[in-house]
Specification:
hydrolase, 10 strands, 22% strand, Cysteine hydrolase, globular, Isochorismatase-like_sf, hydrolase activity, two-stranded antiparallel sheet, binds dicarbonimidic diamide, alpha/beta
Length: 221
């Protein structure tokens, strides 16, 4: 049993084989100029600050042979998996599927849709392509976790209050023990990140726990 100091109280991992690190949407479309994030009017520089810490945690998982899952928010080139409501949202100069500086916005396989090079998946890691904000909606994630006997999930990535929180809530409702890694998640709006951390661990951990990457590495070493 591993015990990680966390809020609102210690988080326990019974067995490392039941654990996965989930890295949400660390893709160029959200972190780099010219992608979906910037087109929606956001300051993308806000998100880059977590990369070194997240890379350290990812390396720790790799060195210890632990399960790593990457997700990407993306759509098929024919947009058959993109609701009209999602395409119309935002009123920016470009929308999902349009040609942008890094290829078609949020389309699977385009340059802008790739995970940033620092965190690129390696062989053996699970990659989930998701059309929604939550990683369980319309994907094979649940099957993949069940097949491996995974019950404990650490959530990282961007953006805290959108895809990270949505996925953590979906996982919580499915019975997974969920922990958000505070210094490995970011938002375009720092106060939204703080509110998300506060709300997931309120009421005795209504959605789960939060802690830092350092506490995780100390506890699991
Ligand atoms: C957004 C995400 N913010 N990955 N996607 O649209 O959070």
């Amino acid at each position: 049993m591993f015990r990680i100091p966390a809020l609102p109280y210690d988080y326990e991992v019974p067995n490392l084989s039941q654990l996965a690190l989930v890295i949400i949407d660390m893709q160029r479309d959200f972190l780099e100029p010219g992608g979906f994030g910037e087109i929606l009017g956001n300051d993308v520089a806000q998100l880059g600050s977590i990369v070194p810490t997240l890379k350290g945690l990812l390396n720790f998982f790799r060195q210890n042979g632990l399960t790593v899952i990457h997700t990407l928010e993306c759509h098929q080139p024919d947009l058959s998996d993109c609701p009209i409501s999602k395409r119309k949202r935002g009123k920016g100069s470009l929308t999902i599927g349009d040609e942008g500086p890094m290829g078609r916005i949020l389309i699977r396989g385009e340059a802008g849709n790739a995970i940033i090079p620092d965190l690129a998946p390696i062989e053996g890691e699970i990659v989930i392509h998701k059309p929604g904000k939550g990683a369980f909606y319309a994907t094979e994630l649940q099957d993949s976790l069940q097949k491996r006997g995974i019950t404990h999930l650490f959530f990282t990535g961007v953006t805290t209050e959108v895809c990270v929180q949505t996925t953590m809530r979906e996982a919580n409702d499915r019975g997974y023990e969920c922990l958000m890694v505070e210094d490995c998640t970011a938002s375009y709006f720092p106060h939204f990140k703080q509110s998300t951390l506060d709300m997931v661990r309120a009421q005795g951990g209504i959605v789960g726990w939060t802690t830092s990457a350092q506490e995780i590495q100390k506890a699991l070493s």
